[in-house]
Amino acid sequence: MGKGSREDYLLRILRITEEEGIAKTNDIAALMNVSAASVTEMLRVLAGDDLIEYRKYRGVSLTAKGLAQAKRIRDKHQIAERFLMDVLDKEQGEAHEEACKMEHILSDESAKSMCRIIGAAEMSGCEVCGTECIKNASGIRLNRMSTGMAGRISHLKCDDAEKIRKLVAIGFVPGRSISLVNRTTNNGPIIFRMGESNIALDQDLASLVFVHVDQ
Amino acid sequence: MSISDTMREMQVTLVGQPNTGKSSLFTRMTGVGVIISNYAGTTVEFEEATVTRDGVNIHVHDLPGTHSLSGNSDDELIVMEALTKDAGDVIIVVADASNIEGSLVLCFEVMELGLPAILALNKIDVAVKKFDTDIEKLRRILDIPVVAVSARSAFGVDELMDNVIRYKKRPTGFKVRYDTHTEEYIEQLIPMISVKEFDPRGTAVKLLENERIISSMASAAERENAEKMASEFERTHGESINVHIARDRYGQTGIIKNEVQRKTTRERTLAEKISDATTAPSTGIPILLAVLFITFMGFITLSGILEGLIHSAYDSLIGDSLKEFGTQMGGELGHAVMAGIDGSIRAILTLVIPFIMLFYVILGVLEDSGYLPRAVVLMDRTMHSLGLHGGAFIPMMVGVGCNVPAIMATRTIASKRERLILSTIIVMAVPCSAQLAIIMGATGKYAGMLAAFSIFLVLLVMIFVIGMLMNRWMKYEPTNLAMEIPELSMPSARNVAFKTWNRCRDFFMIAFPLLVAGSIILEVFLQYGALDAVVGPFSFVTVTMLGLPAVVIIAFIMGLLRKEMALGMLIILAAKDGMSLTTFMSPDQFLVFGLVMSIYIPCMATLAVLWREFGIRNTVMMTMTSLAAALLIGTAFNAILSMI
């Protein structure tokens, strides 16, 4: 059995255990669309590698080692998917399919580089590089743009869901083109142009929106 | 069967993003005038009107402007609630044809909920200058009626009404496709949906978005499922499902816009260049100061000219004829009564037209030009020191007209705390047009412009003192400025005239009869020598503290009803003693009078609206504080002036 298949199992177990705490063999089988017997077989292999803890009749949970590995794969999936969408302009569905394959073969180094290009995602909790995310010059906060600069919104980042809602409602949505029209006063609101409208945002709100600046 | 039995009734609701011209369209459709301005948030209350066409009674409802149906802001909740209660037979989604993307997103949401939608592409006259729009293609894509209209020129309004009457509800073939995961969730949710008011697919999307009204209508199990899905989505995609859904919607609008609209010119118009200059760091503030300066100087100059004109016109046309007529009819008493009426007419004419009407004309021009939102942005930092944000500027400006709509306009500000600070400032320190008339028409005229300026200075200091004190005392709730900056446009004389008349009508209809009644009652008191009984008890305040003639208390009391009545009463009081205002009070007394009147207790109408918006406790506090402040500052000025 290949590395991809093993990692797929880890991901499924991660998804189930995050919700329910413990994954049952039958749940895994249902989710993977395979027989319970082949699940049991794979679980034995994973337990042998010290990635999961397997108790008969009770179910499985991830060990610390397994958890770290599963999360890393998921992070890579996210990075690959967003890279395909934001940088290569792929459709979401396509990007997702492709990212499902890339997650298994992407090296840590490449993932880090891709991450540097797209900038960190909202609430990603990404642990690929184990350090604070480095903002690349092409992925910056709106309030760091200068007059006349143009780009495309990549993501929004804020713990307050209501602020995200507000921004989304007035049109600050990933994927849209945006340019900076005017900085009004020192530290005052900034006027942006999206589509045909000019919108003023204060610095606080502007700092929550990230853009890829057109080179 | 009579005709009325065969009448068909239709309910039509207008929904649209702010400043797409919803209210103008409402006026065009119904012929009922509502106040329209070139910035977001003019409609804070529902408007409803009925129009009959082809034997159908069409009831049109105008809802507040809303950016989307999933933002959970106050306006959005109001609109969602109204749609939940009764969506009506047709929903007209009003879009700005020159800026369709945001409006299309709102239209998607309305369609997704299975509501009977017609898309009205408003401002088509503006759009044709920028785009070729293929209306037919848009109609085919969305699979709903689409009508190009211009509320400004009435173009297309008939066609829109015909579409409303002919409307037959049928499912649309259009829907926004979301990404595979979201679609999976929607599929799973649809079978459990119990909400009957809307289409199950739309309801499922709203549950995933955690829209407050629909979530509250769903069962706990539905909510839990949707919440679980949303959080799973966030974990696996590293992005909230709301953002993702919006991303797909805007993606769709982008595609549609490219299909149906082609840019015709790439050249920037002069208006756009001026527009940029109004907010640029180097020119924004100077332009703001210039606008304020020109507004102020224009007001002072024009009001002086107008007042002179009206005075001389009244003298030459009517003169003393009313009083003489009174003497002929009823001797001394008749003369006195007619003198009261004569004084009332003079007071209203010389107060309302030069000061109040003129202010509203200027405000109307500023509003319709679209300049005010630019002032908001430029004032944002300054307003922060008062615990407010730039958005407070518009209610303050409206407050120079009248406190009542100003307090209503504070509703556009999200936090309760800011609303209270702002309303207190408006009530205490922002002179309304009637107070402005007193400052300019009494103090300015009889004590000199310097005295009038010193009152403005005191009020300006008060704005900062009140703001800073309240900002310190009240618990902090951060709020943010995010507002659309409309394009600058040439104000329409018709709209400005309409707004001015609408806003001034009460001065003629209510204030004038009150003033006449007041003057007659005063006459009766005089006849029976009872004036001292009323005036006497207050003489400590009026004479000792403020150094004013004792009878001025009558003016103060009338000022409780309406502020402009105080000055009107003052004119009548002076006339009773056969004096002109010049001999009635000294310049210093006029300064104190103007000062006290500008700060002191809000008028009845303002009190009523304060009570409704903030409750009795806050209202009493504000009233007491302003009375105390007025007396303290008035007494202090009197003391200082009598020392010099």
Strand order of the largest sheet of chain B: 2-3-1-4-5-7
Strand content of chain A: 15-25%
Number of strands of chain B: 9
User: Of all protein chain pairs, which has the greatest interface, and how many residues does each chain bring to it?
Assistant: A-B, 54 and 59 residues
Structure description:
The complex is a heterodimer of chains A (215) and B (644). Chain A is built from eight helices and eight strands, in the order H-H-H-E-E-H-H-H-E-E-H-E-E-E-H-E. Chain A has 215 residues and is α+β, with helices and mostly antiparallel strands. Chain A folds into three domains: 3-62, Arc Repressor Mutant, subunit A; 72-118, Orthogonal Bundle (Diphtheria Toxin Repressor, domain 2), CATH 1.10.60; 139-213, SH3 type barrels, CATH 2.30.30.90. The radius of gyration of chain A is 21 Å and the shape is elongated. Chain B starts with a helix and ends with a helix. Chain B has three domains: 3-166, Rossmann fold (3-Layer(aba) Sandwich); 180-263, Helix Hairpins (Orthogonal Bundle); 284-481 and 492-643, no CATH class. Chain B is α/β, with parallel strands linked by helices. Chain B contains 29 helices and nine strands. The interface between A and B is large, with 54 and 59 residues. Strand 7 (197-201) of chain A pairs antiparallel with strand 9 of chain B.
